[in-house]
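hiii so um. not sure if this is the right channel but i have a protein structure encoded as tokens and i wanna go backwards to a sequence. like what aa goes where. can anyone help
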């Protein structure tokens, strides 16, 4: 049986099942509860070199596009001209062949180097997914500028910086760019409401109704960067991107809604 080349342990993850609740009901303490162990597969088999890793072991060891064990180059060109790192992933979800894990490895490598950006990365993902409620939940969190993140102990950026974050591993897109790319008007309106100086008369009434229901309002924007002014690595505003994407954004360019 193959083992992880990093830790030399079997390619499984152990799960602990405790019947403590049942024991407590029977009058026994939780400390005397019986515990049984079972396992699930946890195998990342890299196509380029054949090395096997646990997923977390690969994340811990990965830094460049070479295998952390044998130093073979892992990248393969894609049809679109990009790069991919392909593997066979075997976990609790089954077996996935020729899975491209480069985006996940890139993300995790970035967070390893810049843990203070974890909240910013989550914000960008919410924008790409069109998850308005998640973004609102983030806005309602206490300002984390002097609060350590529970997961990694690193101070996170304040909400105003999160809203105006530009993705260094995603062509310096802002959340507004991401919303346009994803075709999410809801997220675009939310970001324009809380992070721009767009005239409030330009918003449809239903936007204010939804914002009120979610408990969101515009704060004073004096001295803050207007999210519409942010441009990606190619010099494009969110309006430029909307013009390229078309579709639901037809009619938006030229009105100043997406560019300051």
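sure thing!! here u go:
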């Amino acid at each position: 049986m193959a083992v992880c080349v990093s830790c030399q342990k079997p390619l499984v993850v152990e799960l602990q099942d405790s019947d403590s609740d049942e024991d407590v009901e029977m009058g026994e303490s939780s400390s005397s509860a019986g515990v049984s162990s079972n396992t699930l597969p946890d195998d990342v088999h890299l196509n380029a070199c054949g090395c096997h890793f646990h997923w977390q072991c690969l994340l811990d060891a990965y830094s460049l596009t070479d295998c952390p064990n044998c130093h073979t180059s892992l990248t393969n060109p894609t049809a679109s001209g990009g790069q991919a790192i392909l593997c066979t992933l075997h976990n609790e979800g089954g077996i996935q062949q020729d899975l491209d894990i480069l985006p996940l490895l890139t993300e995790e490598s970035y967070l390893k180097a810049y843990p203070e950006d974890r909240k910013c990365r989550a914000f960008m993902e919410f924008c790409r997914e069109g998850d308005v409620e998640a973004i609102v939940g983030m806005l309602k969190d206490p300002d984390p500028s002097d609060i350590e993140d529970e997961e990694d102990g690193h101070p996170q950026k304040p909400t105003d910086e999160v809203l105006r974050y530009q993705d260094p591993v995603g062509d310096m897109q802002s959340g507004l760019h991401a919303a346009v790319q994803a075709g999410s008007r809801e997220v675009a309106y939310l970001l324009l409401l809380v992070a721009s100086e767009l005239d409030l008369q330009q918003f449809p009434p239903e936007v204010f109704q939804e914002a009120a229901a979610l408990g969101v309002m515009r704060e004073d924007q004096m001295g803050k960067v207007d999210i519409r002014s942010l441009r990606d690595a190619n010099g494009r505003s969110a309006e430029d991107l909307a013009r390229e994407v078309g579709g639901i954004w037809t009619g938006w360019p030229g009105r100043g809604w997406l560019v300051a």
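oh and Residues 19-36, 144-150 have pLDDT under 50 and may be disordered.
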